[in-house]
């Protein structure tokens, strides 16, 4: 059983002593924190103990029970009040109700009546405590789930149209501030470096967030394998500041963590309903940037139309195919690097670049069939090769794969044909 604190107030010492000594407070779930002979004394005890219940006579010197009840009602909202009086006065009862008094009873009070009254009061206080505890638990659970709830909201905000009223209500309930004049979105992918643990990845994201916060209001959240930053400002974003910030941070991240970041930057918009457009722009720009290992960002407005370079790479592939069986390792490396340089001029996004590398790889595969090269483990068929290429997530990884694939064809040819040594 909970024990609730109580203060007793009556100007008649005999009655006050009788209440304190004559009732089994502990058995009823109460503890007498103090007694007072007038309202002023009671208020002093209130300040010290903040009791759950005050039982007071109405007629007292200096400050009567009604004035005491008024003060408690205004300043101690969690304290309940029971007033008793020897005067059957309607005006007293009316004022008592207006001051939030829980019970107004007439003297004399017998023991059974007081015991029932206190039992009922204890049950009421118990219910209120339970409700407060449950609310506190809910508030604690809500606070713990706030990051997840925000992430869910951000995901909807950037991927689907939202009803204005619902959107504003969620912004308020999630304690977000979207009062900026203009917005843009940055989509980021962290490339795996020497440090591959989760804490290093979190540190990289936090490093970028701290840098961006110097030039804009920032909200950050994750989506799939990307980190999304919503930038807000009271004036149109200076793309130069954003790109310089990303460039400088990318250098710092590579120096500290040995990792690279690839970023796609959207255009600007003033309305929150345009957020899905900004997100799509940022993701598209990121797809282009993933193909460019030497660049840390791509700005959506700088994306150039796809250039036709098919003839160029077909020519390069034919040249490599004619020399792959007799050129040196260094010569082959140079030829493949020239091919990759041609490809980078095409302004492909990631998906387009994967398809190009896949087509080139199939072209090379025809060479080892032509030269009757066989290897069950390394050249296990077009399906396995396609799955591998489509699993690569950056231009740098695709470039490395193509280089290694060409070198592999050459080395298998050397192994299968010992009479044809490198010149």
What does this structure look like?
With 423 residues, the chain is an alpha/beta fold. The protein is 56% helix and 14% strand. The chain has 15 helices and 10 strands.
Query: Tally the helices: what do you get?
Result: 15
Q: Average pLDDT across residues?
A: 83
User: Strand count, sense and closure of the main sheet?
Assistant: 5 strands, parallel
**Overall shape:** rod-shaped
Instruction: Please give the order of strands in the largest beta sheet.
Output: 2-1-3-4-5
Rounded to an integer in angstroms, the radius of gyration calculated over CA atoms is 39 Å
Number of strands: 10
Order of helices and strands: EHHEHEHEHEHHEHEEHEHEHHHHH
Helix content: 55-70%
What share of the residues does DSSP label as strand, in percent?
Answer: 5-15%
Low-pLDDT runs: 376-380, 418-423
Cα end-to-end separation: 94 Å
Structure classification: alpha/beta
Structure characteristics:
five-stranded parallel beta sheet, disordered C terminus, alpha/beta, 56% helix, five-stranded mixed beta sheet, 423 residues
